[in-house]
């Protein structure tokens, strides 16, 4: 039987007797361990990303699957891909046990359904170009494990992000990412260090995949959606810098073409 580090007692006690400053200082001390635990997992993250990219180049998608905090973080990362990289919302998809209701309210027993995860993947027409990444701090969520098991049986690439070593979820994953952050400040509260580490790793996966797929130029989000004035201004300044235009010329060009990349390509084609 594997050890659930995520359920082990906090390294701190009598929390209710501590001052606000002590609580904040202790939480911060624990949070500093997260980036180091994530660093240890880079070889596994690299292995997963390097297998995802060719699949996405063939039209594949990424499915994040989780329950509770883990599910919410997957949905969050997926929802940030269209505005940041100008990709359709169908390329990285976050699925949470209990459906969208569970984003705000806990759905009783949803995470204990071993069949529902795979059913949802089938509803999305999953195929062998796709990748399924399970997210669970404990590594024991039945909704996720069931989906990974079936996906793997169908020849689909599987990965996972967990905070325990040698979990049942890792056993169903081609590339398990084990980010061992240690016991939580509040015992068992895996929305804390585990959640922070999951967010970091999801950022790493999606950002590196998008860069590899050509959605970033230099260090700029040249495909971002122009969904507010801040982003229009940022895009305008990118074009001013790249094309040596005035601010007003660059802004007009950007708004005409809808993205930095399209505006830049069109300008260069005509000059």
Question: What key attributes describe this structure?
Answer:
271 residues, alpha/beta, five-stranded parallel beta sheet, 50% helix, 9% strand
Could you characterize the architecture of this molecule?
The chain has helices at 20-40, 42-57, 68-85, 116-123, 142-153, 168-171, 193-212, 229-243, 247-257, 260-270, and strands at residues 62-66, 92-96, 131-135, 157-162, 175-178. The mean pLDDT is 96. The protein is α/β, with parallel strands linked by helices and 271 residues long. 42% of the residues are buried. The protein is globular and about 65 Å long. The chain has a 5-stranded parallel β-sheet with strand order 2-1-3-4-5, sandwiched between helices. The longest helix has 21 residues, at 20-40. Strand 1 (62-66), helix 3 (68-85) and strand 2 (92-96) form a beta-alpha-beta unit. The chain contains 10 helices and 5 strands; from the N terminus they run H-H-E-H-E-H-E-H-E-H-E-H-H-H-H.
Report the total helices.
10
Nearest-integer average pLDDT: 96
First CA to last CA: what distance?
A: 67 Å
Q: Order the strands across the largest sheet as they lie in space.
A: 2-1-3-4-5
The count of DSSP E runs of length 2 or more, i.e. the number of strands, is 5
Proportion of β residues?
5-15%
What's the alpha carbon Rg, rounded to whole Å? Answer: 21 Å
Q: What sequence of helices (H) and strands (E) makes up the elements?
A: HHEHEHEHEHEHHHH
């Amino acid at each position: 039987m594997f050890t659930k580090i995520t359920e082990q007692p906090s390294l701190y006690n009598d929390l209710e007797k501590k001052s606000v400053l002590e609580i904040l200082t202790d939480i911060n001390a624990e949070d500093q361990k997260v980036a180091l635990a994530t660093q240890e997992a880079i070889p596994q993250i690299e292995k997963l990303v390097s297998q995802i990219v060719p699949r996405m180049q063939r039209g594949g998608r990424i499915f994040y699957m989780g329950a509770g905090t883990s599910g919410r973080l997957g949905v969050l990362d997926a929802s940030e891909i269209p505005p940041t990289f100008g990709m359709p919302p169908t390329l990285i998809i976050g699925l949470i046990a209990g459906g969208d209701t569970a984003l705000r309210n806990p759905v009783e027993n949803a995470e204990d359904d071993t069949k529902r995860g795979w059913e949802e993947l089938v509803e999305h027409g999953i195929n062998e170009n796709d990748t399924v990444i399970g997210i669970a701090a404990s590594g024991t969520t039945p909704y996720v494990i069931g989906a990974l098991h079936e996906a793997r049986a169908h020849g689909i690439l599987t990965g996972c992000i967990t905070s325990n070593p040698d979990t049942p979820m890792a056993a169903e994953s081609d590339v398990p990412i084990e980010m061992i952050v240690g016991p939580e400040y509040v015992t068992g509260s895996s929305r804390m260090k585990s959640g922070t580490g999951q967010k970091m790793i999801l950022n790493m996966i999606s950002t590196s995949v998008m860069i590899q797929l050509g959605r970033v130029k230099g260090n700029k989000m040249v495909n971002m959606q122009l969904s507010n004035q801040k982003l229009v201004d940022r895009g305008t300044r990118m074009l001013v810098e790249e094309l040596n235009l005035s601010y007003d010329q660059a802004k007009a060009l950007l708004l005409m073409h809808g993205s930095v990349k399209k505006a830049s390509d069109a300008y260069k084609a005509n000059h």
